[in-house]
Amino acid sequence: MKIPALDPDMAMILKRMEQADLLPYTGMTPVEARQAQEARNVYWNEQPPAVESVIDVSVAGPFGARRMRIYDCAPGSKPRPALLYLHGGGWVIGSIDSHDIIARELARRSGHVIAAYDYVLAPEHPFPEPLEDCIAAFRWLVDRAADTGIDPERISVAGDSAGAALSLGVALHQRDSHGRLPAGIGMIYPTTSARLDRESQKRFGGGDFILSSAMMEWFWNHHAPDPATRSDPRIELVDADLGGLPPVYMSIAELDPLRDEGDLLLERLKETDTPVEYHLWRGVTHACLPMIRDLKAGRGFLQEIADFLKRAAGDSMP
C-alpha cells in the first residue's frame, strides 16, 4: 500500500533529523532518554510566544510534590475555563518544559487558563501510578479553582500521545467514581492500545516517521513491564466502556504507527452516547504538534484544538 505524501514542511523536518543521525531512545536508559529528549526539544521551544502570567506551583500528589505550570493570558479576570494539559512521551520521557510551546499556544488561542502537569514517570512509577497522579492533579485543580481564577465546572483535560491516554483515563475515573467530569477531553494522536501488530505499525513503525514500533515496545516495557497488566482497560482503552463522557476531541496523524488504534477508538466512541469530534492530520507524523516553528500546518492544528476547548466549555458541539 502506498505511503501517503508528506507535508513539505514535515519532509524537511524529517530530513534534518536524519542528517543529525540522532541516537534512538531504545539504546538508552530512561534517564538518558529524558535528557536527550529535553535537549532535542529546546529548538522547538526557543523564542516562545509571550503569555502574561506563567507560574510554577507545587502540587502535593500521591507520590510526592510535583510541578504544575499555570499559563494565564488574563490573570485577575473573572473565573474562566481551564485545561489540564498532560504531555506525551510514552509515560517514560517528556515534561512541562519539553512541551512548553504547546501550553503557551493553547493559552493564547483559547483564552483559557492552561495548567501543564509534570506527572510521575516510569519505570520509577509504572502503571497505574502516572494515571493516579494525573487524577489527583485534576482534583487539585477543581479544589483550588478559587485560588487560580478557574471556573471549577469548566475544566477540560487534554494531552498528546501517552498524555492523551492519561486524559481519557482521568475522565473515565471521574465518571466511575461519580466525581466532577471534565468539560471536555482532548486526545492528540493518542496511545490507546498495547498491541503492536496492527497494519499502521507495519506501515509507519519502521523508524522513518519519528515514532517506531521498537520505541513503543521500549515504552511499554518500562510503563507496564508485566504483560498481564496490558489487558487492563485503562491501558487497552479500545476495550474500555466509553459511554457517559463529556465531548471528546481526537486527532490522528496520517503517518503514525498509532493510527489504526486511534481509528479503532473512534469507532468505539461512535457506538456510545459520547459526542466525538475527529480530525485526520494529513501529511504529518506522530509528535508533530510542538514543531510549529517550522511546520506551518501545526498552527492550524493548535487552533482547532483551542476552538474545541472553547466549544466544550460552552457546552456546545458542532
**Residues in helices, as a percent range:** 25-40%
What's the structural domain tally?
1
The secondary-structure class comes to alpha/beta
- What is the CA-atom radius of gyration, in angstroms? 18 Å
What CATH first level would be assigned?
Answer: Alpha Beta
Uncertain ranges: none
Write the element-wise H/E pattern from the N-terminal end onward. Answer: HHEEEHEHHEHEHHEHEH
CATH H level, superfamily name? Alpha/Beta hydrolase fold, catalytic domain
Q: According to CATH, what is the topology? A: Rossmann fold
User: Which CATH-level-2 architecture?
Assistant: 3-Layer(aba) Sandwich
Distance between the termini: 34 Å
Query: How many β-strands, per DSSP?
Result: 8
Mean pLDDT: 96
Note the beta-strand portion.
15-25%
Continuous helix count = 10
Shape: globular
Q: Strand order, biggest sheet?
A: 1-2-4-3-5-6-7-8
Main sheet: strands, sense, barrel: 8 strands, mixed
Overview of this protein structure:
The protein has helices at 8-20, 30-45, 100-110, 129-143, 145-148, 162-176, 199-204, 213-223, 259-270, 296-313; strands spanning 53-61, 64-72, 80-86, 113-117, 150-160, 185-188, 248-255, 276-285. With 318 residues, it is of the alpha/beta class. It has a single domain, classed as 3-Layer(aba) Sandwich (Rossmann fold), CATH 3.40.50.1820.
Question: Which helices and strands, and how do they pair?
Answer:
Elements: H1 8-20, H2 30-45, E1 53-61, E2 64-72, E3 80-86, H3 100-110, E4 113-117, H4 129-143, H5 145-148, E5 150-160, H6 162-176, E6 185-188, H7 199-204, H8 213-223, E7 248-255, H9 259-270, E8 276-285, H10 296-313
Helix pairs in contact: 3-10, 4-6
